[in-house]
Amino acid sequence: MSSLNFNTSNQTFRQLLGNGLTYRVPPFQRDYSWTDDEWDDLWQDILGLFEDDGEPAHYMGYLVLQSSNSKEFDIIDGQQRLTTLSLMVLAALGQLKDLVTEDIDADRNQQRKDNLQNSYIGYIDPVSLVPRSKLVLNRHNDKFYQNFLVPLESLPQSNLNASEHLLRKGFSWFKERLKGHCEQRGEDIAAFIDSLVDKLFFTVITVTDELNAFKVFETLNARGVRLSSTDLLKNYLFSVISSTGIHDSELKHWKISGSVLLANWVMKAFLNFYEFFGIAAIN
Q1: Residue in 263, 267, 265, 275 with CA at minimum distance from that of residue 242
Q2: Domain segments of the chain: what residues?
């Protein structure tokens, strides 16, 4: 394998999301899986930041990204944390939207909501005028995220997969916590988020070569429900397969299970090896 090629920096949540960059969870990476335990751990850490004798910042751990153009990044490790923070911001936006609907300082709260949404959730592309989300989730979660959470639509209660239920529940969970903490004042809600984004920071490792992600990943001990090495290998194999132009229906057929996929892919690789070197495969 070639030498490890990556860049490392410490970045706040504002620096990560408060710009024109976009982040994508690879289509076949594991679904969102955080629950009350992880949400509460993070929330308690956040509350501690706002106490009189609280710490000035909270370390969110490593974030491993893969990119070849420095504008669009695949999230190799850290999607659970970034998705959860996105849910928290969306919950704050939901609070502001409720205040606007109730005609409570409606104009100013609408401005607060729009500014926060443009900074940390998505914006209108100045060229195409098409809405662009800063975060794209995997193939099982993104439709719910983009169609209901990002536009703050009424959330469905049924016909959801397990991870979509967790996304819906997480949004509501943080909305209730914010309601109690900020006492339904738009100024307080906006100030809370505006301060929080500078208090949360990550060590960001940006890898240019997908294969080097294996080396980086094995050394990390990030917080939360972590991606396994098998998951990472599976994601890489799917990215290779997808690059060949295979149709979505074929991809779905391949993804019967991780073990079947890996077995089939490895067998195909060995058969190609035998064929290339003119060696007859053993039946």
Answers
A1: 265
A2: 6-225, 246-276
Grouping H, G, I as helix, E, B as strand and the rest as coil, residue 186 is helix
In angstroms, rounded to a whole number, what is the distance separating the alpha carbons of residues 13 and 199? Answer: 8
Q: CB count, 10 Å around CB of 100? A: 18
How many other CB atoms are found less than 10 A from the CB of residue 6? 17
Q: Which positions of the chain have pLDDT values less than 70? A: 1-5, 129, 209-283
Contact between 168 and 155 under an 8 Å Cβ cutoff? The reply is: yes
Per-residue pLDDT of 189-206, as tens digits, reads: 999 999 999 999 999 989
Strands (E), the chain: 6-12, 22-24, 58-66, 72-77, 122-124, 131-133, 135-136, 200-207
Nearest one of 170, 169, 1 to 82, comparing CA atoms: 170
pLDDT digits (tens, 9 = 90+) for 23-56: 999 887 889 999 999 999 999 999 999 998 888 9
